[in-house]
Amino acid sequence: MHVPRHVAIIMDGNGRWARDRGLPRAAGHRAGIKPVRLTVEECSRRGVEVLTLFAFSSENWLRPPQEVGVLMQLFLEALDREADELAAKGVSLRFIGARAVLGAELQARMAGVESRTAANTGLKLIVAIGYGGRWDIVEAAKRLARAAQAGTLDPDSIDEAGFAAGLALAGLPDPDLFIRTGGDQRISNFLLWNLAYAELWFTEAFWPAFDAAALEAAFGAFATRERRFGKTAAQLKAERC
Ligand code: IPE
Ligand code: IPE
Ligand code: MG
After folding, report:
1. Digit-coded pLDDT (tens) for 118-170
2. Which tens digits make up the pLDDT trace of 188-201?
3. Are 195 and 59 in contact (CB under 8 A)?
4. Considering the domain boundaries, does residue 94 fall inside one?
5. What is the CATH number of the domain that holds 114?
6. What amino acid positions are annotated as catalytic residues?
7. Is the overall model pTM greater than 0.85, yes or no?
8. Residue among 4, 116, 115 nearest 49 (CA)
9. How far is ligand 2, taken at its centre, from the CA of residue 75, in Å?
10. Is 151 within a domain?
11. CA 15 to CA 68: how far, in whole Å?
């Protein structure tokens, strides 16, 4: 089966999963850790190179402060608990997003686990916290503008590859498979640039209920897709021979 090199997931539906059980939203967020573990394991096992998980968007700061607090505390606890396991599995962990606004303690742990796992050669796990696709593009534009202003960059020399080199996922392949749980079919300001040619797969399942069978279904669907990248089916066939 053709395996995607890069899988990107919007882990949505924690709140509704909890509501259906008469539980507070925080319980849904807590229950969302188990499927993260499973997804990391399954992607490692299947030979996926990069897994990018959307954990907290730039717009999620607009949620009630109490819920934001719960999520930040959960990130801190999960990082403490899972870091050893990830390191032992050979996973390298990196975070993308505007991190200066995060708590000092969380920022320190994030930097710690990043440097500790940087040399690992297994699955590249990217966790998007305080991330927005538009933020990412604006940051890349700023870098280019600074270089142009400093006289080290000719604006006419800027091309797509040069622009992409300023994005948070610079140097990594674009996502091949995009998964969103929770039933909504939208991008919600995730990797706007990088998802240009991703295969999209949606499931009604809420994130805490996402399991190996759901992941298998996503991978199965991906394997059946014909990715033409603008070409005709006949061209692709000719290229394969
Ligand atoms: C995803 O679940 C987690 C975050 C966005 C942080 P939600 O909290 O969005 O759950 P729903 O969509 O309200 O059910
Ligand atoms: C997207 O989920 C962000 C994450 C899963 C981290 P949201 O629940 O924030 O998305 P919207 O608001 O329904 O589009
Ligand atoms: Mg949601």
Report:
1. 999 999 999 999 999 999 999 999 999 999 999 999 999 999 999 999 999 99
2. 999 999 999 999 99
3. no
4. yes
5. 3.40.1180.10
6. 12, 60
7. yes
8. 4
9. 16
10. no
11. 13
